[in-house]
Design brief:
This protein has 210 residues and is of the alpha/beta class. It has one domain: P-loop containing nucleotide triphosphate hydrolases (Rossmann fold, 3-Layer(aba) Sandwich). Helices cover 32% and strands 18% of the residues. The chain has a seven-stranded mixed beta sheet. The chain has a two-stranded antiparallel sheet with strand order 4-7. Strands 5-6 form a two-stranded antiparallel sheet. The protein is globular, with a radius of gyration of 17 Å. The termini are close together. The relative contact order is 0.23. This is Uridine kinase. It comes from Streptomyces olivochromogenes. InterPro entries: P-loop_NTPase (IPR027417).
Length: 210
């Protein structure tokens, strides 16, 4: 696959321009976008950049992080604090994401999205208020392993790190998570699955498949 060098600023602008004309296939008035990638790839930074570019263009958006929908610690760490299988399959409360984020944005939904549910630092509910996303507003969901859950994304962006870059940029205490990303590559191949691929081995010089 041929990738072209680009700046993060230009990438955010081009993605925002693409989203302005995006019409969900299922008739929902709210486009739903995935920014998929390991924490070391910082897909949330790109999601926020696109959200700002949309704001400048007069389009509402809501950035939601999957880390706001983690399960309680008692469930995440049921098999220990460094279990890659649990990290891959059981850390994110996908049921809550379906109920609180995607359900309200279905055709006929009311657009009232809960931006987060659980604070992993305090291991308590965040009690955040619902956010009303107006028709035409864009959901920008970021996090790891997003493309394996059959979420109804209208466009997906994968921020890719090579295995070497992923190891270098993942803090050593979190290296136990690396097998989960290896499994994701094998089972899902997110670089080929996503609509847009961004390679970020050098965080100063990204490239994408435009």
């Amino acid at each position: 696959m041929r990738l072209e060098a680009i700046t993060w600023e230009r990438l955010g602008d081009l993605l925002a321009e693409r989203l302005l004309d995006l019409k969900p296939d299922d008739g929902s008035p709210w486009p739903r976008i995935a920014f998929d990638g390991a924490p070391a790839a910082h897909p949330g930074d790109l999601a926020h950049r696109v959200g700002e570019a949309l704001r400048i263009r007069g389009r509402s958006s809501l950035v939601v992080g999957a880390e706001g929908f983690l399960r309680p610690a008692s469930l995440r760490f049921e098999y220990g604090h460094e279990d890659a299988e649990a990290y891959y399959n059981g850390w994110v409360d996908t049921g809550a994401l379906w109920r609180e984020v995607f359900g309200p944005l279905d055709p006929g939904g009311d657009g009232r999205v809960l931006p987060d549910l659980w604070d992993p630092a305090t291991d308590r509910a965040t009690r955040s208020p619902y956010v009303q996303l107006p028709p035409g507003g864009v959901l920008l969901l970021h996090g790891p392993f997003l493309l394996r859950h059959w979420f109804p994304f209208d466009l997906s962006v994968h921020v890719l790190l090579s295995p070497g870059a992923l190891r270098r940029r993942t803090p050593e205490p979190e290296h136990w998570t690396l097998p989960a990303f290896e499994r994701y590559e094998t089972e899902v191949d997110p670089g080929a699955t996503a609509d847009v691929l961004v390679r970020a081995d050098d965080p100063r010089h990204p490239a994408w498949n435009g």
